[in-house]
Amino acid sequence: MNPPSSILPSTDGDDLAILNTTFVAISEFILSIPGSAGVLRYIKTSYQDDPFRVVLELILVFFAIQYMSAKKYKIDDNAVKLTSKEIDELVTEWTPEPLVPPLSDQDRLDLEKSTLITGAQGPKPRVGSNQKPLLNLASANYLGLCSSDRIKEKAVQTLREYGVGSCGPPGFYGTIDVHMDLERNIAQFLGVEEAIIYAQGFSTISSVVPAFAKRGDVIVVW
User: Most buried among 58, 111, 122, 212, by the most CB within 10 A?
Assistant: First the structure.
């Protein structure tokens, strides 16, 4: 006959005590690791009210573990092994495909009928037999600076002073005095303390925003 349930020993309290002791021991072990307090503080502030980030990074961690533990790829030992002479013969016989297909008769006719720009390039070039200058909307030289004698003289002077290949942002070619002068002039023109020049708009998004902004910051763009 089974004893009444009221006199059975209760193990719920013991289980909770063991679980609590285990958690305390694990916490003390983690905190004993150098730098663990900073990592825990970062995790606590980073994952607050952001369950999507938690799920995403857990998936990335799982993928990394699966990738590292996957079987390494090996070349099949039964694969055909070629000698150096056979490889050279195959390379000699190989004919690459043309970069562009050959022109058809219609393409040649269209090419012959295409109008060409005659004379110097500029914002208003002369096209074909038409002697009337037309507005060129397909060029970035909309101000006609390429044909300016002052710009040409300055370009020659810059090449003699800095050499060929120095025309670019400091992130590509290194910071020189021209970059610093341009940043100073831009800052004075905009009425701000300092300015930074970048090659393209997308490089600003991928570098400046992550470097200076964090969660909760407000970015004002004008």
Answer: 122
For tokens 């150098």, the residue is: 34
* Token reading at 1: 């006959």
> What mean pLDDT is reported for the chain?
79
Please answer whether residues 17 and 25 qualify as being in contact, where contact means their C-beta atoms are separated by less than 8 angstroms: no
CA atoms within 13 A on the CB side of 105: 0
Q: What is the dihedral of CA 104, 110, 113, 116, to 10 degrees?
A: -100
Q: What is the pLDDT of residues 91-124, one digit of tens each?
A: 999 988 888 888 888 988 888 888 777 766 777 7
- What are the φ and ψ backbone dihedral angles of 133, each rounded to 5 degrees? -65, 140
- Rounded Cα distance between 193 and 198, Å, is 17
Residues 141/123, Cβ–Cβ less than 8 Å: yes
Helices 12-31 and 36-46 meet at what angle, rounded to 10?
A: 110
DSSP single-letter state for residue 111: H
